[in-house]
Write a structure and sequence with these properties.
Elements (H helix, E strand, L loop, with lengths): L3 H5 L21 E9 L3 E9 L2 E7 L11 E10 L7 E3 L7 E13 L7 H11 L1 E7 L4 E8 L9 E6 L2
Antiparallel strand pairs: 1-2, 1-6, 2-3, 3-4, 4-9, 5-6, 6-7, 7-8, 8-9
The protein binds manganese (II) ion.
The site of manganese (II) ion has 6 residues, from β2.
Length: 165
Amino acid sequence: MGLQEYRKKRTFAKTLEPKGKKGKKTKEVLSFVIQKHAARHLHWDLRLEIDGVLKSWAIPKEPSSDTSVKRLAIEVEDHPIEYGTFEGEIPKGEYGAGTVEIWDRGTYAPTHEDGDDPNKIMREEHKKGHMKFVLKGKKLKGPFVLVRMHKPPYEKKEWLFFKVK
Ligand code: MN
């Protein structure tokens, strides 16, 4: 997806959000962040680092560590890696206007590691619409799943996000 859509939606002269550099793929340890975003509708933005960008989902209700609670997660545009440390106010009139604060962050890894590049595993699982990973955050820890609610050709971007045993 890249960052074109992310940049198109924002006026960087007006918002303090990062423009983002060309994503470079990192290391074996991938990061994740969840930002609580008090926009017109309060939501939580889950972002998983894959291939040098943050794949992103907007979750309308607070993520839960209760394995019986499944949260709707709507996939949105990729965000730059630098967005993972962003907190602050997006000004009125700008895209996503409102307060962003980091709700949780840490590292994550594919549940099924086989010595392969974790970027590759997660990229392939993302494509399949079934992602399994272990979060190491302050609030969320352990195995979680993101699964697409629809079959291809994926007109809708609705996924479910939940913890598994
Ligand atoms: Mn948001």
